[in-house]
Design goal:
Elements lengths: L1 H11 L3 H8 L4 H7 L4 H8 L1 H9 L5 E7 L6 E7 L5 E6 L10 E7 L2 E6 L9 E4 L4 E4 L12 E11 L4 E11 L3 E9 L4 E5 L11 E10 L2 E8 L7 E6 L4 E6 L14 E5 L2 E10 L2 E10 L2 E9 L5 E8 L3 E7 L6 E7 L4 E9 L4 E6 L7
Length: 371
Amino acid sequence: MRVAQDDHHVFVNCPNEILIEILSYLPVKSLLRFRCVCKEWNKLVQTPLFVSAHLGKRIPNSLLIINSSNTDQKACFSLFNAETVNEALQLELPMKAHPGYKLSVCGSNNGLICISSANLLDVDPIYIWNPSVRKSRKLPRGLIPKQDHCWPLNYLAFGFHQAVIDHKVVRIVRFEQWSCCYQVEIYSLKSDCWRRVPAVPPIPSALDCRLLPKSICFDEVAYWIVKHKNGGIPISILSFDMAAEEFHRLMLPDCLVYTDAPSSPSLGVVKESLSVFHCRSDGGKQLCDTWLLKMGTWVRLNTIILPLHEQITRTWRLLDCKILLARQTEGLENSSLTLFDPELEHIEDVRIESGSHWVYADSYAESLLLL
């Protein structure tokens, strides 16, 4: 007992620099328990210095899946071990959508998940949630006013601005009447407020030229696919630099510019580069092409033969090599999820049935943010 008391005394009186170095390697669950050791540790774990040090030692080693319910406004959060595909955690999201609406995820970063309404006409309320510490923040309403006789379409992105150590939500509002106009605002988690941005997206004003609602953020830049509903205008990528607060338009690989495939290209990050995934059929086979953006030029990384005979409704490239597939059997409403490792040609069923409304998937690393 005396040895245990001495050890406790040594750790409690250990210099903060050493304590931070030791404790920052521990998982969030352990740190939440250690807050009860003493008042000093409780304060230390919540300091920005410790939260930042802990975050710097986290690596994405889990598979995050969020699935909506078809019967109510609830959604389910599931965390899987990326190696064993065993479910490590399941939670119900602490917020609900308004009646008649569904919840949607517009992005995840550093253990935080940005959640809003899936209805493009009204994304409020917007939440930022940390499932590891069970804390969330409801964002204030945006500054962009509604306009009479216009349909406002909302597009969101959630990312991290490293230079100012701040998580941000980018909101693009598209007002439709005879033609389209855009307004933009940014929410700062650090200051907990919205700010208008004068930049205008370089998108054609045609009514049938729209952003796809799914966005990604990588290296302080948010990206959306821009697609023309009736063809005629090439598919492209819209980017927004969070540091410079500027929009740019990026063309897709030539073979995808006017693609007539039933599924649109999707965006991701592979080998620390912006990437595009495109599923297509060829001679009875289902293929998935992966393109990387290198020095401003698109390079095809590989083409993978998908090992399934059901209809592939969506793909996600996760943890740099594995592919999560949503597949649907003819006659069934819901999809099922499969994790495919193309290098080992190994297929693993993810034991979760996805609702017909939406599924969000990403690699995940826990954090203490919002504690």
